[in-house]
Structures are given as structure tokens and as C-alpha cells.
């Protein structure tokens, strides 16, 4: 992987101490991003299993009641975590849309 953790248009243009602090914070962000990617991968592995089960039993690819419940739950979690609930809902909706597309594809493959 050719990732430069120190890549920045600010290099050499700001106080070195401030730049080092910036790099330190960005390093934490990079670690969180990596964790998010692996968590999303695990989540999608689980949703693929759900998609297989739904396809095998001819269940619909989406479950609106489940989705509504998840959004309500996510709003509560977001407030507890001091994260904007609207942002959290947009993020979950993006994931749900992707999962539904996967479930539709799995269902079509089963037919």
C-alpha cells in the first residue's frame, strides 16, 4: 500500500509543532477509518447471510419495519454518543440501500 500518512498541502507552510499535532490527530482518524472499514466488511458479511436466507425462503429483500426500528435506535445511539442523529440516519440509510441492492442481486441469482 502506498499511503503517505504525512501527505498534506500544509507541510512546510505552518508551524512545525502545529503540523506535528495535526499529524498526530490525523493518525487517530486514520486508525478509526481503518476500523470502520473492517466493521463495515463484517457487517456486510452478516447482511449477505441474511440475503441468502431471504432468497432461499423467498422473503422480500427489504424489511421496512426493521429499517424504521433501526433508524429510531440509531437516533438514540447517536444522541448518546453526541453525534448528529440526522447524519447517523443518512449514514444508515446509505448502508441499508446498499444492503437491499445486495439482497435483490442474491435473490435474482437464486432464481
Describe the structure.
- The structure is a single chain.
- The chain is mainly alpha-helical.
- About 75% of the residues lie in helices and about 0% in strands.
- The protein has three helices and no strands.
- Helix 1 packs parallel to helix 3 and helix 2 runs antiparallel to helix 3.
- The chain is elongated and about 60 Å long.
- It starts with 15 loop residues before the first helix and ends with a helix.
Please give the share of residues in helix: over 70%
Tally of DSSP β-strands: 0
Structural class: mainly alpha
The share of residues in extended strands comes to under 5%
N-to-C span: 39 Å
Main beta sheet: strand number and arrangement? Answer: none
Number of helices: 3
Give the overall shape, derived from the CA principal axes: elongated
- Give the H and E element order: HHH
> What quaternary form is this?
single chain
Q: Round the mean pLDDT to the nearest integer and report it.
A: 94
Over the alpha carbons, how many angstroms does the gyration radius reach?
A: 20 Å
Uncertain runs are none
Summarize the structure.
The chain is mainly alpha-helical and 111 residues long.
SSE inventory with pairings:
Blueprint: H1 16-56, H2 64-80, H3 85-110
Notable features of this structure?
single chain, 111 residues, mainly alpha
Amino acid at each position: 500500500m502506498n499511503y503517505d500518512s504525512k501527505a498534506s498541502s500544509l507541510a512546510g507552510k505552518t508551524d512545525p509543532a502545529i503540523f506535528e499535532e495535526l499529524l498526530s490527530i490525523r493518525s487517530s482518524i486514520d486508525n478509526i477509518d481503518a476500523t470502520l472499514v473492517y466493521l463495515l466488511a463484517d457487517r456486510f458479511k452478516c447482511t449477505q447471510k441474511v440475503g441468502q436466507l431471504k432468497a432461499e425462503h423467498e422473503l422480500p429483500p427489504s424489511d421496512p419495519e426493521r429499517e424504521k426500528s433501526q433508524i429510531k435506535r440509531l437516533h438514540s445511539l447517536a444522541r448518546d454518543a453526541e453525534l448528529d442523529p440526522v447524519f447517523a440516519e443518512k449514514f444508515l440509510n446509505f448502508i441499508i440501500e446498499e444492503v437491499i441492492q445486495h439482497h435483490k442481486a442474491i435473490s435474482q441469482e437464486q432464481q
